[in-house]
Amino acid sequence: MKEAALRAANDLIKKYQKRFPQAMEVLEEGLEDSLQFYSFQSFDFRKISSTNLLERLHKEIRRRSRVVGIFPGPNAYLRLVTCYLMEYADDWSSGKSYITREIIEEYRAKALIAA
């Protein structure tokens, strides 16, 4: 899978190098980092290769801040967002996530055995 993604990215870089040199340079520099999720064999690639979770998080913050309307100051907005993020972090730590601590520990153990 990772090899196919690298081939596709290299084809894209070759195709658009002359037209968009700066964009292709940025793509080349970040390509290896952006494909790191292929190293995690136990995870569902559709979930970790998408930005849906991040987009959903931002949507929820916007929804909660819209309810308030006008904040008395920047600190009030910061408190609202911080409280929501704390609640969100609790959900992750309590096991309501698809990437649990057990899965990560299992992957680490496999990686140590392979090394």
Account of the 3D structure:
The protein has 115 residues and is mostly helical. It has a domain at 61-115. Helix content is 73%, strand content 0%. It has six helices and no strands. The longest helix is centred in the C-terminal third of the chain and has 20 residues, at 74-93. The mean pLDDT is 82.
Key features?
single chain, 115 residues, mainly alpha, 6 helices, flat
Quick summary of this structure?
The protein is 73% helix and 0% strand. It has helices at 2-16, 21-34, 45-48, 52-68, 74-93, 101-114.
The total count of helices amounts to 6
Strand content: under 5%
The global form is: flat
As residue ranges, the low-confidence spans are none
Q: What is the CA-atom radius of gyration, in angstroms?
A: 20 Å
Record field, number of beta strands: 0
Main sheet characteristics: none
State the helical fraction: over 70%
Distance between the termini: 22 Å
**What does the average pLDDT come to?**
82
Structural class: mainly alpha
Which series of helices and strands comes N to C? HHHHHH
